[in-house]
Amino acid sequence: MTDTDRLLTLLAARSAKRGDFVLASGRRSxxxxxARLTTMDPTGLALIGPLGLAAIEDAGWNATAVGGLTLGADxxxxxxxxxxxxxxxxxxxxTVRKEAKAHGTGKLVEGPFAAGDRCVIxxxxxxxxxxxxxxxxxxxxxxxxxxGVLAVVDREEGGREAIEATGVPVRTxxxxxxxxxxx
Length: 183
Known about the structure:
The protein has helices at 3-15, 36-39, 42-59, 74-86, 130-141, 159-164, 176-180, and strands spanning 16-22, 28-33, 65-69, 92-96, 109-110, 118-126, 145-154, 170-175. The protein has 183 residues and is an alpha/beta fold. A 6-stranded mixed β-sheet has the order 5-4-3-6-7-8, with helices on both faces. Strands 1-2 form a two-stranded antiparallel ribbon. Strand 7 (145-154), helix 6 and strand 8 form a beta-alpha-beta unit. Helix 1 (3-15) crosses helix 3 and helix 3 crosses helix 4 (74-86). It starts with a helix and ends with a helix.
């Protein structure tokens, strides 16, 4: 079994639920994928880090930083950053807040992020693409160069296409179709 197969199996077993759900986008769905049950799990982190790093390298994005909108993107970014240190190809992690802090430095983008960074926006689940697009705007407003978007799961509901319509390529580690096939 490959690491991708292991990740798909983990997502199907832990993160995918059948029922009637309202998603963050406001849409209704018969499938809820709570990727955090996988992305915050030690086994999930151990798989996502190297798989995410490999996807970024295979895409040729030459990233210097990874991150996205808190909370879903955080464990994904940290797993990739950790895997990059082990592979001796360091990629820094950052977090995009939903709103700038009202105290301290008032930052919207937190962590070792710098203007000019080649950034990959990461997501746990893409549905409409709204979270990734918001993170992209914040990073670009702070001088980052968005070279791609990487999601653990693509729900295949138009989010990928919405992001790609901005000219930014998208890669995913899993899709709704592949997860549902294991349910």
